[in-house]
User: Which sequence fits this backbone?
């Protein structure tokens, strides 16, 4: 998917066959989840349950902000990831704050992936 907001947010029902918007051919939600998981594992050296800043994960994918955020929120609802805020104000730089995902008015700066089969 190309970066930008052209048509973002249409067609996402959360099912494996649902499509995610963007320029060109739509990707499936399952495909986006797989891409996010691969990028996470690349950043952690293949380890699960390791914190990754969304500021480090976002640039690894060519997703719109809406597609990235909605997919991670869906993955959290499914128990695949845990999204957390960053309490340490020294680590909360502008880059980290700008990349945060908002859930009910609370910024989430970090993601931890649950090991498959341990949910």
Assistant:
């Amino acid at each position: 998917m190309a970066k930008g907001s052209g048509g973002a947010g249409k067609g996402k029902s959360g099912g494996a066959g649902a499509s995610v918007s963007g320029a060109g051919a739509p990707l499936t939600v399952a495909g986006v989840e797989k891409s996010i998981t691969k990028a996470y594992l690349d950043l952690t050296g293949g380890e699960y349950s390791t914190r990754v800043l969304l500021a480090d994960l976002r640039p690894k994918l060519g997703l719109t902000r809406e597609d990235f955020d909605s997919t991670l929120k869906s993955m959290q609802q499914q128990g695949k990831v845990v999204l957390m805020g960053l309490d340490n104000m020294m680590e909360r730089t502008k880059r980290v704050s700008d990349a945060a995902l908002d859930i009910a008015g609370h910024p989430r700066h970090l993601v931890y992936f649950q090991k498959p089969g341990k949910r």
